[in-house]
């Protein structure tokens, strides 16, 4: 029998956690394994849908493109005009899925657990923006990309969801959570590793 | 390298997008009854103009939405952007 | 300190306390920090540095910057060697090693120099005309031409250096940090805009660095003081990025600028350490200010290419910036005032200036006046008609010009000299503006091309805009910088105009070819490619009219320097021959890059293991540990086969294939595309994207589906599972996972927005483990004791959810091998643990992991097609013999109408068949062409090709699938696969080779 405890994150084979840059770029990187991730799709102009989600999660879905909202312990990232990713604590994704599925039984929407489909690389420190800009064509100047901002974009050759979770002014900031498909995580980790080490 | 304005995400590099070719090509309904030539016209024939061109684009590596772009194929200037369910805007002085 | 004979005793921007040793062609020399290789060579009296491309003529340093056509050297050695490096832009470092190119065995004694004697036999177009026919000899010619063609050698080893890349965005990019660029950057920076200011040189200042400072002032101070103040101010601004040693080489669409920053090229190896060698900047600028300056053009006169003949501005820069005397006795030859500054500066540095030869009859500017006052002889209305000297110029011959400027007369005077400083005027450096697709206007007063209307958000300022005076440069720069920042959304007050005091220039006289009394004298236009006026004349005589054609025929402007010094002269000479105005002849296109860019910088970090993403499954490490050989399927690494000690591939695959049929095999199938499809119209949607019907599929049941494009061609296939009334889970082939999702989204968003369906990729959410074989059910039972696996409750093409090895799993009973098979899906984090549990539980059955090769054999034995292998975008389901999956009654679906097009309904289309080789041990090559009749040699009528071919251990013979014209009507026919070793005889068979009744599936 498989031991239920023997779960493996996407980057379990890499010694990644808390890696601090050696290249003079002041930043560190870690994997945030098993964070709960749920894709929610529904009609943003349907006030009933929005109210139902609010009722289930006490959370207002962000409607402005490339933004996020948060009601701890759940936050929501805007992925598209009718698509969000709900982020929650490891292990709580099933509860989020169940409560949404129950609440949204009527009407047209979808709730999909994708916690294992992605992992999160957390990049933090003053040089984070520079490091990201070596592979990401987005304008990452603080004027253009700030706390709470979200972008679905590319870093090098990997599709990512970029989420800024702390500011320059925060301790150890800024912080960026980079969501990447599980099988691209190794590539993206090695990409960052080459830059910072 | 082009910048394409996604109606939702704003301007992004062209590498995030997929160009779906000429827009406003109606898929014939009642396909069984139309002749081969008309079906071939729908399948294969495209304008390929030099100048203003109505195109479908998808923000493939971003929000994954499809939308319309009017682009000058010579200068690469983006002349208009509009949603899938919208009619093409009037662009004075330009023929499509 | 080793003596540098031509180093001036004082002055210059070099650091005399920091001596640097270097070698050139094996000889050791010394220079100083601040030198370029060119200035250091000249300081040591080395003018002869290379040989020309075609005639192997001795050549010296012509310029002092990026425009240099002659002084190209091979730098370094081994893996780090770089060819075609301009000595004029190569910063000197301790230990630098350089060698001349294009000469053998030595620079001074060069066998290729014979070409110079034979020059009459090597006119323009010689290679084109000589080596055209017969075509079959091209391979021989090519070898000869490649050896004759010169320039440097590419390194043969792997590049050991690292290259960085960086995206950037700014409000205002200023290209060039001469007076105009510095003024622009300062004005833009003061508004608070994000500014990038870049310059190709190590030091900012542009032409100011070449100034003696004696004749000009900016705001009551020296130009250098203003320069330093401005740079300091820019460096203090937090949103201004100052990038020296950075060349903006390409101006692309939508204000995208490619820039190359040289990080360690100026450092000795030991100091470079582990830093990246270069950085490619990919910059998006809201507004661009081009302040790229100008490039001096040479005069085209007889024998104008000898070492020691250089541009006047370069001579000046060597004297003032590098404290190097370009010679001991100089002659200046000019058509404009600017060269007088060179005469004055050389004279001030102690060089004997024999004379200024001026093509003009009237010379009135401030600088000529100063030159006369300094006692420098000026010969007005004179021309240089010949030069002498083999490896270095030794003298010039001058004669009086006639009024028209097309002939000379009077006595020929000889002047001894070892240096000739030449100026034919200045060309604005419009390269980037032109790359931005801006049109150029011809300004006839100075015979220059200047930027016309901008096409992109760019503006030009200073010399690159045709405004050459310092006052104009400062004013235009400041205005452009402020205007650009304002357009980008920033506020700033107009700055006061900077007062500048400088000499006033008189008009110039353009003589595109300086006459000589010797009609056969060679006048070089393009120094690097050895194009002379005669070559251009020949092209015109042979009928070329377009400058673009003349360029290609004569190769003028096609060297690594892209004709920076020669193009306008060439254009004017061709215009003259054609009797046309210069603007009527047009100007050749300026292409990126402005100066060469290394491949390393373009590749950046996308090399080696980061060339492309490598995707692994949750069980990847297990495959690695078990010694799997991997196959690339798209970006995935899939286990291909698992050789045991001493096994060949064939032996391993045979073993894996047998195990799957005889006991149980296990396959990592996690790469299968998986799409969650949900909504009230989900079934209706599937009806439209698949060829078969989906409405009646029961919940918990699976169905195989085939997807066509609208032209009727097979696109993808896979099994789809119904999870609920409005909920399906579609699988796609590994390679098409992303494109099928995009395809579904495209139809939903663009064609059928009325359908209420959401699609979500869950490919990576699940690890998928496939087990198959007679013992598969027993194995599953061992790890999933609570699941009921009997054929009656868990039939083929159905699904059950339950615990597998202690993990909640979704199990599909499906088969791609013809054996009883189960596909176990668990969340990816559990994949490895469940896999391990199956391997352990399967030990009693001799469980065998099999890879993609065995999977292919197993499915081919059953005649199952693979989308993308049997089909190639030109194959319909009918071609594949899959009429059974096309439902004609359910209504429209994608591709339906196309299946009735006259072409797709043809009887003689290629159809899927099986092939047996006459010798059962012969395995055909996939891709082999099939013919009915074998001829002595191609061409033969090819009636089809082999799509899949394997050795089948279960049949004890080879099998192949093929697409053959009218194949289904050919069963039993003998055909041939012609191969280099002779044709292979094959017999057409059914594509189902094994268990055609499918009894094993339910066994
Ligand atoms: Zn978008």
Structural overview:
The complex is a heterotrimer of chains A (197), B (96) and C (1003). In chain A, α1 (47-57) crosses α2. Chain A has helices spanning 47-57, 93-103, 128-133, 185-196; strands at 19-20, 28-32, 36-41, 68-71, 74-80, 83-88, 110-113, 118-124, 150-155, 158-166, 175-181. The mean pLDDT of chain A is 93. Chain A has 197 residues and is α+β, with helices and mostly antiparallel strands. Chain A has 2 domains: 12-33 and 117-196, Probable tRNA modification gtpase trme, domain 1 (Gyrase A, domain 2, 2-Layer Sandwich); 36-113, Heterotetrameric sarcosine oxidase (Alpha-Beta Plaits). Helix content of chain A is 20%, strand content 32%. Chain B is mainly beta and 96 residues long. Chain B has a domain at 3-23 and 40-83: 2-Layer Sandwich (Folate-binding fold). Chain B is built from 1 helix and 6 strands, in the order βββαβββ. In chain B, a hairpin with a 5-residue loop joins β5 (66-72) and β6. With 1003 residues, chain C is of the alpha+beta class. Helix content of chain C is 22%, strand content 28%. The longest helix of chain C is centred in the middle third of the chain and has 18 residues, at 470-487. The interface between A and C is large, with 47 and 49 residues. The complex binds zinc ion. Zinc ion (ZN) binds next to loops of chain B.
What's the SSE blueprint?
The complex is a heterotrimer of chains A (197), B (96) and C (1003).
Chain A: E1 19-20, E2 28-32, E3 36-41, H1 47-57, E4 68-71, E5 74-80, E6 83-88, H2 93-103, E7 110-113, E8 118-124, H3 128-133, E9 150-155, E10 158-166, E11 175-181, H4 185-196
Antiparallel strand pairs in A: 1-2, 2-8, 3-6, 3-7, 4-5, 5-6, 8-11, 9-10, 10-11
Chain B: E1 3-6, E2 10-13, E3 18-22, H1 36-44, E4 52-58, E5 66-72, E6 78-82
Antiparallel strand pairs in B: 1-2, 3-4, 4-5, 5-6
Chain C: E1 15-24, E2 27-33, H1 37-43, E3 48-51, E4 58-60, E5 72-75, E6 82-86, E7 96-100, H2 114-117, H3 126-130, H4 138-148, E8 163-175, H5 179-189, E9 195-198, E10 217-218, H6 223-236, E11 240-243, E12 246-252, E13 256-262, H7 269-272, E14 278-290, E15 294-296, E16 309-311, H8 312-320, E17 329-334, H9 338-348, E18 352-358, H10 366-373, E19 378-380, E20 382-388, E21 395-401, E22 408-416, E23 419-423, E24 426-428, H11 431-435, E25 440-443, E26 448-451, E27 458-460, H12 470-487, E28 500-501, E29 524-526, E30 531-532, H13 533-541, H14 547-554, H15 567-578, H16 582-585, H17 599-603, H18 620-625, E31 629-633, E32 636-641, H19 649-662, E33 665-668, E34 673-678, H20 682-689, E35 702-708, E36 714-724, E37 727-732, H21 737-751, E38 758-761, E39 766-772, H22 776-783, E40 798-804, E41 807-813, E42 821-827, H23 831-842, E43 848-849, H24 852-861, E44 910-917, E45 929-931, E46 942-952, E47 957-965, E48 974-977, E49 984-989
Parallel strand pairs in C: 1-7, 8-9, 8-14, 9-11, 14-27, 16-23, 17-18, 17-23, 18-19, 33-43
Antiparallel strand pairs in C: 1-2, 3-4, 5-6, 5-7, 10-28, 12-13, 13-14, 15-24, 20-21, 21-22, 25-26, 29-30, 31-32, 33-39, 34-37, 34-38, 35-36, 36-37, 39-42, 40-41, 41-42, 44-47, 44-49, 45-46, 46-47, 48-49
Helix pairs in contact in C: 5-6, 5-12, 8-9, 9-10, 13-15, 19-24, 22-23
The complex binds zinc ion (ZN).
């Amino acid at each position: 029998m498989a031991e239920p405890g023997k779960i493996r994150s996407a980057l379990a084979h890499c010694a990644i956690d808390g890696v601090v840059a050696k290249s003079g770029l002041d930043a560190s990187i870690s994997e945030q394994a098993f964070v709960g991730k749920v894709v929610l799709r529904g009609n943003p102009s349907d006030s009933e849908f929005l109210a139902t989600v609010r009722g289930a999660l006490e959370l207002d879905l962000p409607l402005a493109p490339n933004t996020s909202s948060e009601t701890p312990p759940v936050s929501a990232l805007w992925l598209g005009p009718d698509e969000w990713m709900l982020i929650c604590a490891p292990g709580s994704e099933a509860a989020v899925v169940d409560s949404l599925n129950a609440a949204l039984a009527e009407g047209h929407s979808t709730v999909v657990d994708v916690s294992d489909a992605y992992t999160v690389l957390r990049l933090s420190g003053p040089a984070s923006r520079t490091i990201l800009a070596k592979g990401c064509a987005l304008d990452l100047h603080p004027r253009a990309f700030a706390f709470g901002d979200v972008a679905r974009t590319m870093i090098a050759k990997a599709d990512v969801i970029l989420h800024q979770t702390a500011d320059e002014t925060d301790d150890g900031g800024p912080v960026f959570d980079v969501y990447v498909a599980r099988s691209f995580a190794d590539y993206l980790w090695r990409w960052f590793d080459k830059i910072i080490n | 390298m082009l910048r394409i304005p996604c109606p939702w995400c704003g301007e992004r590099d062209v590498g995030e997008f997929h160009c779906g070719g000429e827009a406003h090509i109606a898929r014939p309904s009642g396909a069984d009854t139309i002749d081969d030539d008309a079906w071939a016209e729908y399948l294969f024939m495209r304008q390929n103009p030099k100048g203003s061109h109505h195109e479908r684009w998808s923000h493939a590596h971003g929000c994954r939405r499809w939308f319309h772009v009017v682009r000058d194929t010579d200068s690469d200037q983006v002349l208009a952007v509009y949603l899938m369910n919208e009619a093409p805007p009037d662009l004075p002085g330009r023929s499509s | 300190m080793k003596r540098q004979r031509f180093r001036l005793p004082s002055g210059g921007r070099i650091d005399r306390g920091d001596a640097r040793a270097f070698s050139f062609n094996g000889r050791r020399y010394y220079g100083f920090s601040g030198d370029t290789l060119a200035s250091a060579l000249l300081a040591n009296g080395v003018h002869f540095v290379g040989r020309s491309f075609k005639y192997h003529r001795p050549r010296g340093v012509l310029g002092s910057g990026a425009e240099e056509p002659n002084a190209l050297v091979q730098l370094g050695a081994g893996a780090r060697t770089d060819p075609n490096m301009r000595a004029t832009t190569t910063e000197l470092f301790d230990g630098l090693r350089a060698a001349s190119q294009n000469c053998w065995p030595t620079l001074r004694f060069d066998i290729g120099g014979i070409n110079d004697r034979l020059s009459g036999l090597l006119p323009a177009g010689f290679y084109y005309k000589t080596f055209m026919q017969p075509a079959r000899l091209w391979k021989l010619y090519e070898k000869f031409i490649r050896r004759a063609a010169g320039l440097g050698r590419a390194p043969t080893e792997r590049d050991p250096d690292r290259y960085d890349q960086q995206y950037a965005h700014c409000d205002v990019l200023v290209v060039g940090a001469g007076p105009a660029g510095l003024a622009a950057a300062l004005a833009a920076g003061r508004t608070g805009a994000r500014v990038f200011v870049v310059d190709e040189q190590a030091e900012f200042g542009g032409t100011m660095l070449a100034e003696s400072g004696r004749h000009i002032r900016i705001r009551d101070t020296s130009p250098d003081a203003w320069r330093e103040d401005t740079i300091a101010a820019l460096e203090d601004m937090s949103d201004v990025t100052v990038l020296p040693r950075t060349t903006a080489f390409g101006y692309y669409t939508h204000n995208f600028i490619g820039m190359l920053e040289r990080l360690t090229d100026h450092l000795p190896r030991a100091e470079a350490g582990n830093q990246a060698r270069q950085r490619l900047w990919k910059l998006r600028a809201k507004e661009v200010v081009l302040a790229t300056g100008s490039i001096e053009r040479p005069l085209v006169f007889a024998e104008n290419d000898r070492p020691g003949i250089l541009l006047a501005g370069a001579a000046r820069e060597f004297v003032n910036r590098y404290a190097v005397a370009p010679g001991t006795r100089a002659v200046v030859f000019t058509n404009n005032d600017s060269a007088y500054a060179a005469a004055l500066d050389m004279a001030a540095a102690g060089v004997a200036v024999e004379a200024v030869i001026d093509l003009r009859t009237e010379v009135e500017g401030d600088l000529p006046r100063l030159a006369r006052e300094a006692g420098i002889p000026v010969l007005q209305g004179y021309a240089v008609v010949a030069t002498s000297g083999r490896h270095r110029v030794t003298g010039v011959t001058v004669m009086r010009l006639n009024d028209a400027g097309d002939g000379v007369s009077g006595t020929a005077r000889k002047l001894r000299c070892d240096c000739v400083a030449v100026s034919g005027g200045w060309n604005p450096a419009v390269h980037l503006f032109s790359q931005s697709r801006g049109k150029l206007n011809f300004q006839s007063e100075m015979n220059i091309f200047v930027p016309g209307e901008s096409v992109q958000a760019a503006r030009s300022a200073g010399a690159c805009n045709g405004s050459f005076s310092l006052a104009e440069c400062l004013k235009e720069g400041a205005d452009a910088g402020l205007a650009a920042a304002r357009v980008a959304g920033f506020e700033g007050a107009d700055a006061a105009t900077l007062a500048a005091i400088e000499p006033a220039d008189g008009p110039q006289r353009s003589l595109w070819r300086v006459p000589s009394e010797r009609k056969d004298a060679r006048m070089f236009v393009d120094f690097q490619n050895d194009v002379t006026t005669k070559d251009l004349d020949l092209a015109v005589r042979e009928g070329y009219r377009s400058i673009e054609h003349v360029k290609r025929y004569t190769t003028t402007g096609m060297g690594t320097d892209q004709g920076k010094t020669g193009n306008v002269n060439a254009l004017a000479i061709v215009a003259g021959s054609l009797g046309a105005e210069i603007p009527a002849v047009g100007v050749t296109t300026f292409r990126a890059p402005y100066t060469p860019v290394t491949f390393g910088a373009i590749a950046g970090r996308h090399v080696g293991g980061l060339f492309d993403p490598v995707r692994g499954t949750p069980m990847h490490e297990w495959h690695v540990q078990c010694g799997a050989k991997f196959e690339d399927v798209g970006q995935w690494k899939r286990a291909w086969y698992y050789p045991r000690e001493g096994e060949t591939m064939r032996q391993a695959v045979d073993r894996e294939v047998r195990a799957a049929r005889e006991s149980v095999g296990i396959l990592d199938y996690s790469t299968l595309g998986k799409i969650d499809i949900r909504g009230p119209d989900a079934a209706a949607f599937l009806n439209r994207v698949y060829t078969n019907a989906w409405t009646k599929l029961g919940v918990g049941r699976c169905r195989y589906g085939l997807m066509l494009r609208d032209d009727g061609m097979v696109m993808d296939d896979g099994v789809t599972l119904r999870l609920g009334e409005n909920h399906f889970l579609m699988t796609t082939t590994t390679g098409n996972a992303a494109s099928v999702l995009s395809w579904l989204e495209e139809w939903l968003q663009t064609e059928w927005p009325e359908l209420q369906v959401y699609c979500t990729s869950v490919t990576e959410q699940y690890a998928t483990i496939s087990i198959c074989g007679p013992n598969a059910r027993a194995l599953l039972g061992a790890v999933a004791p609570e699941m009921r696996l009997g054929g009656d409750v868990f039939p083929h093409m159905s699904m059950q959810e339950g615990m597998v090895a202690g993990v909640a799993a979704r199990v599909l009973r499906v088969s791609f091998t013809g054996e009883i098979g189960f596909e176990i899906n668990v969340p990816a984090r559990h994949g490895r643990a469940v896999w391990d549990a199956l391997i352990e539980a399967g030990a009693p059955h001799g469980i065998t992991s099999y890879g993609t090769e065995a999977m292919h054999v197993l499915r081919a034995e059953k005649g199952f097609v693979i989308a993308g292998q049997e089909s190639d975008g030109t194959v319909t389901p009918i071609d594949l013999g899959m009429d059974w999956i096309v439902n004609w009654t359910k209504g429209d679906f994608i591709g339906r109408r196309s299946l009735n097009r006259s072409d797709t309904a043809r009887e003689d289309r290629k159809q899927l068949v099986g092939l047996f080789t006459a010798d059962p041990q012969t395995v055909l090559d996939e891709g082999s062409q099939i013919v009915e009749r074998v001829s002595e040699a191609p061409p033969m009528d090819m009636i089809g090709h082999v799509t899949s071919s394997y050795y089948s251990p279960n049949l004890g013979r080879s099998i192949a699938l093929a697409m053959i014209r009218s194949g289904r009507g050919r069963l039993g026919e003998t055909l041939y696969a012609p191969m280099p070793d002779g044709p292979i005889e094959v017999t057409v068979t059914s594509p189902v080779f094994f268990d055609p009744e499918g009894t094993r599936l339910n066994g």
